């Protein structure tokens, strides 16, 4: 495997976290996966490429390299459900979003292996995330964390119908200041040609809920993009025209966050 994550320190009070674009799987794990599992269908495909934006040149960036099938960095290390009573996947998932098995029969990780994965992958990522947020807050007096994701536009097991294009999550307003929440909703209403939801099916995962502490000058927002906005979903291939249009909107979104970060 390559390094666990890519971390770049910026000189503006914004950190972009990308926990689910990784495709690295240790050989000892890969050999135990089903054919479906080995294809990593629930990856946030190309999100790191998507966020290669002019407005982010000076921002901090933390990109995981390990696949979410090894360990899901956007889940708590005690594997508490993010959405009790709803279908979801856990810390070391054993089924895909569609419910298909990830591991061959009898090859699922046991408690000891899960504990080892927490120490090897989960903890280093979160220690780096916390350290960078603390550095930004100490340097600038506040910080904004954007947790960046994407997902297939239709996942019947997880949600009904077609997902909106832009899905903002702030843990029902608890992970950011009220003013940021209000201005974010105004921004979302101006997304011409895209549908959106704020704290709809996705309200933010473990990262947003744990690190968003507006009373401690750290705001956190999750953005879950529908992959239909930048991929040909039938083939999984990057759509140049759609991606270029989306990146223009994302660049405006980042400029909005940087403006908000500079407000007192």
The percent range for helix content is 25-40%
Separate helix tally: 7
Largest sheet report = 7 strands, mixed
Provide the β-strand percentage band.
Answer: 15-25%
Spatially, the strands of the biggest sheet line up as 1-3-2-4-7-5-6
Silhouette? globular
Mean pLDDT: 95
Topology as H/E string? Answer: EEHHHEHEEHEHEEEH
The number of domains? 1
CATH topology title: Aminopeptidase
What ranges have pLDDT less than 50 throughout 5 or more consecutive residues? none
Gyration radius, rounded? 18 Å
| CATH class wording | Alpha Beta
Please describe the structure with a list of short key phrases separated by commas or semicolons:
7-stranded mixed beta sheet; 264 residues; Aminopeptidase; 16% strand; 9 strands; alpha/beta; 31% helix
């Amino acid at each position: 495997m390559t390094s666990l994550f890519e971390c770049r320190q910026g000189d503006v009070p914004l950190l972009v976290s990308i926990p689910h674009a990784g495709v690295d799987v240790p050989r000892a794990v890969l050999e135990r996966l089903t054919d479906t599992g080995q294809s990593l269908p629930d990856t946030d495909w190309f999100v790191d490429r998507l966020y290669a934006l002019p407005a982010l040149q000076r921002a901090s960036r933390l990109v995981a390299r390990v696949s979410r099938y090894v360990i899901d960095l956007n889940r708590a290390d005690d594997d508490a459900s993010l959405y009790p009573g709803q279908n979801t996947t856990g810390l070391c998932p054993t089924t895909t979003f569609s419910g298909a098995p990830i591991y061959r029969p009898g090859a699922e990780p046991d408690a000891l292996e899960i504990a080892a994965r927490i120490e090897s992958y989960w903890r280093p990522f979160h220690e780096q995330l916390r350290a960078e947020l603390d550095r930004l807050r100490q340097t600038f007096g506040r910080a904004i964390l954007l947790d960046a994701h994407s997902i297939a536009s239709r996942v019947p097991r997880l949600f009904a119908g077609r997902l909106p294009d832009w899905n903002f999550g702030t843990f029902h307003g608890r992970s950011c200041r009220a003013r940021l929440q209000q201005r974010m909703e105004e921004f979302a209403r101006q997304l011409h040609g895209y549908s959106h939801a704020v704290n709809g099916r996705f309200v933010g995962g473990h990262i947003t809920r744990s690190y968003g502490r507006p009373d401690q000058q750290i705001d956190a927002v999750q953005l879950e993009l529908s992959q239909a906005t930048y991929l040909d979903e039938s083939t999984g291939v990057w759509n140049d025209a759609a991606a270029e249009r989306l990146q223009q909107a994302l660049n405006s979104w980042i400029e909005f966050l940087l403006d908000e970060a500079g407000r007192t």
